[in-house]
Design goal:
By secondary structure, this protein is α/β, with parallel strands linked by helices. It is built from 10 helices and 15 strands. The chain has helices spanning 14-27, 72-88, 117-128, 158-169, 185-190, 193-198, 241-252, 274-282, 298-304, 314-326; strands at residues 3-9, 33-37, 40-44, 50-54, 61-65, 93-98, 133-137, 153-155, 178-182, 201-208, 217-222, 229-237, 257-265, 288-292, 308-311. The strands form 3 sheets. A 7-stranded mixed sheet has the order 11-10-9-12-13-14-15. The chain has a 6-stranded parallel sheet with strand order 2-1-5-6-7-8, with helices on both faces. The chain has a two-stranded antiparallel ribbon with strand order 3-4. Helix 1 (14-27) packs across helix 10 and helix 8 packs across helix 9.
């Protein structure tokens, strides 16, 4: 008897889930697995409580895709209700994939008497909802995978950005005119292999964070950026305020252009509407923003205009999900030389 696999998603993550399902179906075509879309009904009652109902998943493999989508907390409760409904229907196993895990930045008790939801969420998923297989795409800090029991699987999104840069080398960019910029010591540690993989020299922005705000104090640039195309590599862009200051500093040091490459394009600022923020970024010293769509970003990119490029995450996520389902290693996806954009069309 063939094993059934169903792909579920919470509200707001369903478009990405459909893309993953389409690619996953082709990945699994030669196996003894039958893939289908998991149907859900989400009911919201007059008291603002919600209820989730799923179709039959008895003895199925259930794949649940959930990314951070506003309103974040409501969708997080929906995820918990969805997982509870799936558990109550007795699946064979459940995989949860977080393209961008909610509360991943709230992972340390670095001030007195604060919550640490980045740790509590894995505990809830593990102990209450019985989740045992979790996939994280480029978590804000790699140690967050250790809050899950067993340890969550992690796949990096940066190889997608490296492939995008290599494609530029084959067309209109010259490597000798480029330099990789690390915006802080964290990025330098996490992405230290990127300059070598691209055959480029690194440079560093020295900065000090005097408090717990999102805007550190810039101190200067270490390395040669004069006349260079500066490729800033990081895991995410939130408000964009830091990269705007970085770009101004790099331009003041003689940089020819500044290109921001980040896996997660959150693009959110409590002080501005979404459109105001995107227009502010478009009118900045940054010449280009390149992000993946681990969170829904296509509409924001359209508002921002030609400065914004979105690299699809679905091919990588589908490949990683296939490997998890089939019990194959994810290690190859960590190699910057790995062809992370498989040709399936």
């Amino acid at each position: 008897m063939r094993t059934q696999v169903k792909v579920f998603a919470t509200t707001g993550s369903d478009h990405l889930a459909q893309q993953v399902e389409d690619r996953l179906r082709r990945h699994l075509a030669s196996t003894d697995l039958d893939l289908g879309r998991g149907e859900t009904i989400v009911r919201r009652f007059s008291n603002e409580n919600l209820e989730v109902q799923v179709d039959n998943v008895r003895d199925h493999i259930a794949v649940v895709i959930h990314s951070q989508v506003p309103p974040v907390n409501e969708h997080l409760i929906e995820l918990m209700a969805l997982l509870d409904a799936i558990n109550n229907a007795h699946p064979r196993t459940t995989f949860v994939a977080f393209p961008y895990m909610p509360y991943c930045r709230s992972d340390r008790k670095n001030r007195p008497r604060i919550s640490v939801m980045g740790q509590r969420l894995p505990e809830i998923l593990n102990r209450v909802l019985g989740v045992r297989r979790v996939l994280l795409v480029e978590p804000h800090d790699p140690h967050i995978k250790q809050y899950f029991v067993p340890t969550a699987d992690e796949v990096p999104g940066v190889p997608l950005l490296v492939e995008n840069i290599r494609a530029r080398f084959a067309t209109d960019w010259s490597p000798r005119d480029c330099v990789v910029i690390f915006a802080d010591t964290g990025a330098a540690r996490r992405f230290e292999e990127v300059p070598t993989a691209l055959g480029l020299e690194p440079a560093y922005i020295h900065k000090v964070r005097l408090d717990h705000s999102e805007s550190p104090t810039l101190k200067g640039v270490i390395g040669n950026v004069k006349g260079k195309r500066c490729l800033v590599v990081d895991d995410e862009i939130l408000t964009g305020n830091t990269v705007l200051k970085d770009a101004e500093l790099l331009k003041a040091e003689g940089a020819a252009s500044v290109h921001m490459f980040a896996v997660h394009g959150i693009f959110a600022d409590q002080r501005l509407s979404s459109a105001e923020l995107m227009l502010k970024l478009a009118d900045s010293a940054v010449d280009e923003f390149v992000v993946t769509d681990t969170v829904p970003v296509a509409e924001k990119a359209r508002v921002g205009g030609p400065k914004f490029t979105v690299v699809p995450i679905a091919p990588l996520l589908a490949d990683a999900t296939r490997r998890m389902i089939l019990g194959e290693s994810l290690s190859e996806l960590h190699r910057l030389q790995h062809p992370v954009l498989p040709s399936l069309d």
